[in-house]
Write a structure and sequence with these properties.
Elements: H1 8-37, E1 54-56, E2 64-66, E3 76-83, E4 89-95, E5 104-111, H2 122-129, E6 135-145, E7 152-159, E8 165-175, E9 178-188, H3 195-203, E10 205-207, H4 214-225, H5 241-244, H6 246-251
Antiparallel strand pairs: 1-3, 2-10, 3-4, 4-5, 5-9, 6-7, 7-8, 8-9
Length: 252
Amino acid sequence: MHPALHSWRDDLPTTFVRLLAYVGGLAVVSTVAAQFFQSQPVISTITPVHKSDWIEIERPFPAFALSIPEAADVPASYAIRRHADGGGRKDILSLGQADGVAPYLQVEIYRPGVETPRFADPKTEIEIGAAGLGPADVTSDNEPLASKFGPLSIITFTATKSPPRKCLAFVRSTDDPRMQISGWFCQGGSDLIERSTLACALDRFSLLAAGSEPKVGALFAQAELNRTFCGQRNPLMAPTPKHRLLWKAASR
């Protein structure tokens, strides 16, 4: 056929097939190149943030008091913590500094919710509660200490963080009301706080408001009847030299 009579329509199928082949080839090359040159995804390690089970209450309203007049110039603090899920409450009172060399007294009242089915043994409770002091040589004393709240389980340990101090710890739990009183009295040097000094300090621990827990109020009311006024049964003799020197005696 003469070239002049050859129509462009006759070449359309061949041209179209070549175009499709060319486009398909580009697509394959592009895909292979993308797979070859693509950067590997950067996987960063995410460190989970530990969320405490206990929530610190801002501007706590004190329900308990620790009245030691001769320690009026000693740093004091009061904290309330609520369990995020179980509803338990801890009131924590302290006199002195946890990282100093002077005497340091802490008392904790724990009224558990559903987060604690039962209390641990006294030694374990102190090891957990005093973890911030780095307790070492934790030892249970077989002889309980008499107090206005009843017999206290006594545990001794050495606080190893900051200046080493000897600590006399105590624990008492009740079933009705379900409550635990615990804490420790520490001082510098090689000697422990005397047991009578600890009992005298707790003799000054009292309830300010029971709120909606009448059984707690009844427990503290009974405790006041058992109060010895640091060894003196007569309330008129409460401010005895022995009481006034409680904190200073510990300092020495």
